[in-house]
Amino acid sequence: MELKVTFISGRTVDQGCNLENKTSKAYFEAAGYCEMNSADAGRISVEPGNNVKVATDFGSVVVPLKICEGNPDGLIFIPMGPWANAVVDPNTSGCGMPGFKGIPAVVEPSSEEALTMKQLMARLK
Amino acid sequence: MSEMLIKNATVYDPINGVNGDLMDIAVKDGKIVDSASGSAQVIDAGGRLVYPGGVDAHSHIAGSKVNIGRIMRPEDSRLGLKARTKLTRAYTGYTVPNVYAMGYRYAEMGYTTAFEAAIPILKARHTHEELEEIPIIDKGGLTLFGSNWMVMDAIRENDQDRLAAYVAWGLLASRGWGVKIVNPGGGEAWGFGKNVSGLDDPVPNFEVTPRQIIRNLAEVNEKMNLPHSIHLHCNNLGKPGNYETTLASFDICKDIKASRDRQSLHVTHVQFNSWGGNHWGDMESKSDAIADYLNKNDFLTIDMGQLVFGSATTMTADGPVQYANARLLKARWSNGDVELEDTSGVTPLEYHPQSYIHGIMWAIGLELALLTKDPWQVLMTTDHPNGGPYVNYPMVMTMLMSKKRREKEMAKIAEKTFERTSIAGIDRELDWYDIAIKTRAAHAKVLGIIEQGKGHLGVGADADIAIYDIKPDETDATVEFDKVEAAFRRSAYTIKGGEVVARDGEITATPMGRTFWVRTKVDNDGYGRMMDDLKLKFKNYYSVNMANYMVQDEYVERPVVVDTEYK
Amino acid sequence: MIIKDVLCPFCGCLCDDLAVEVVDNKVVDVKHACKIGASKIRGHDRIKAPMMRDDKKGEFREVSYDEAINESAKILANSKRPLLYGWASGVCEMMKKGVLLTEEVGGIIDNTASVCHGPSALGVHEKGLPTGTLGQFANRADVVVFWGCNPVQAHPRHMGRYSVFTKGFFANKGRRSRKVVVFDVRKTDTANLADEYVQVNPGEDYMVLSALRAIVAEKGDVVPETVGGVPKEKLVEVAETMKGAQFGIVYFGMGLTQSRGKYKNIDNAVSLVTELNAHGKHSIIPMRGHYNVTGFGQVCAWETGFVNAVDMSRGYPYYNPGETCSNDLLMREEIDAAFIIAGDAGAHFPAQSIARMGKVPVINIDPFHSASTEMANIVIPTKVSGVELEGTAYRMDGVSLRMRKLVDVDFPSDEEVLDKIIAKVQEIKGASS
């Protein structure tokens, strides 16, 4: 069961509050989740707090789900940070800016654990 | 400190009346002295031309306008690139050089002082951050007051003591040297996309006229005994027919007595304000009317705002004119409104000799300088970088000195220009002494910095000296203009505060210059009324707190403070 | 002791009205700040001492400042293509030293704007920027547009202090003086406070901007029935609102700079605002993130002529965003050392870019353990600017203010560390030349 969506990342208050607290559980909770509306969540039968796997052409990440009814159908949001970075597009189209928004993604329920910031970074070295 | 003796110098020092005398100049501890001891470093000028270090009374060298110019124009920063050396940082830019090139290039031409022409008080900290990084030259800046709510409210309520208290506070807050007025009232009107149309058009919502703003600031300026007079950029700049507004603006200050030995009104880059005609189609030069006024009145001075063909970056606190320019030329447009105070605009443009509009503008600048009899009344500027960048001063100097040089330029310019101007018929050619006046002595006098040792070579003056590779008695500048221009572009020696900072146009030392500012005591109850009003404005309308507003001492590390008193 | 008029060292709002209570050299209370600002000033766990490790997968060992600084200088002096990145959560004084260090080592200096408002600078190269100070908008704006930005989350006091709820001289009824329009791809908390919410399909902002320009220019007949997911009648209504403003202001964010079109979106948005000036007064301003990310652009521009992404390997500045920005350099695997300061590349670059940092020596100057710390070989803790150090910062509108020091600490400042690294680099380079 999977859903084709468009992925965006962005700031939140809690992500901001923990920018200088990145090894903490609070940061993990503030930046390591995926938001979609309840209709989309229903389409892949996940409840808030369940883990989902988000995959793009550039990578994948497992994070818990949150509901945000402000998201239109087919739009998922992960706060900016290491979890979002796992799936964003590094191509800058020749202007220096990678693709942090508007990336085609597939989201599905997952039984995997979400990784911490340190675990995510460890994958890159 | 070391001593220096410049021997066999052909000296032009107009402030001291020295006109081409062959003499020696002695320097000790950064100042000009009577004589030097045997241990002095000797420079043999060999009869070559020696001027006081150049002074630029009106140039846009630092602050948010200049920087948005750089940010908007990477293509400009790619001009004039020069790699760093052990001594110098990298140079960038032509019309909007980086801070390093800004100082180095002035010094390479024998200039040692330049004043930034427009500081918005709220952004003064930025201006000083840049001024502090411009190497070698001494600096100062003029603070914008012409569309300021505090100013207009005090004028409307007829409270000159309060106005003076605010001007004093604004100069302190911005660490400014003088009172700049740009398109008086127009900056406020531009807050809602409008402008004022002339001297008697009331500023919307403030019920004061540009005439009242000019008059009151001029009166207060003299009562404050400031070193510089008010420094006015007239209304209606850049519009055909504007010369009438310009003449009427002059008249506002005609009966104001200067508190010092200087003008009571300086009107800037008058080239842009000497236009006749009713529209672009019949635009013509009215420099004759302006020069005629100057020839009959000695209370005012102007600067040229000479146009130089090629690339320019126009930048001014006259916001509406920049919007009009950008619309007309479909050019990039940056605007920078400053809450409660003023506005600004930045637009790149290119001056083409084949455009008769630009041709007329080119002619007007030179006409103003050549038709005005007293050389002290018209300073040579390009309103850098509005008419073109200051690195072209040497070319402008030769155009003032040589009719042949002007004719060479005229050959490139659209024919129609000469039906609308008188430049072709002007025979006057300035001499070495006149040029010394127009590029240093008069600038120092107009700014009021002679007492600070600028613009001359008398005993006690700063040892700011330019030696040029020209022997005046063997050089006919009316013919050998290329040689003269080359010499003015690269001084043989530039000496700043007694130190050789450039040699044959190459930087040899990079000391940091000082910054001039004025502190005026206003000791009457106007101060209290001003403070009450100011606190209210901060509480209700400013987006920063008053406690964080004023430029701190940290931003002016080498200040020269002049104290005056309001009477 | 209560310190008043404190500046907030978090976001580009640079609020300067905080009151901070300090007891025994400790911050005990922060008043007037938003939740994020208060959190920042109250502080978090610090890196206690400089640390080094050879193997990025291994554990750090504590070292002296001298050792960490000397080793950093060696790495930079001996690298061919070092990237010096960050330069946002610091004061201008350290940024000037950053430019100098980059010149000394012939490296590339790049700022967090690279992944934030870098495309806005490109838009400014194309079209300029009609803008003003935040107080100008507070006093005058009767139509307020937020496009692809969410101040409720990212700039929490913005709407209260500057843009929406505040009363101004002309906009003297505060919120009731203004019509607020939000363009976004999802209904954000900011959109919930708006009079009009315009939902745009992801990546289709450029088309919506073009449609608005056409309608403003009275060429609405060429606009199709739906553009970017927005019905034409809605576009006409919003265009009329904007056109009818006495003073219109567009605040924009990452929704434009990071989505499809990138700098072209900014070009188009600036064009719309410029054209609107034929009717009333209109301005536009990027919502800058870090409290002094604007300051880096200013410092870099006046020192090098360019706003960001400056390559000093030629001895003079070379700027070509798309070639000299961090992610381009990393993805081309061109970098042989990285110096990360006052910004967290590790947390805010795409994973594939960061992987390149995994292969080269990384020096991280930061008071806190960040994601970049995870990638680092050398870590040097410094003072928190604006809390433990005075200095200059530029608000999002280019107004510069002086940050206050609230408490004293023993850590060196960024500037002191940079000075020492520069001196050591000069010594190494001097010896080899």
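qc> The CA atoms of residues 225 and 231 of chain C lie 6 Å apart.
qc> done
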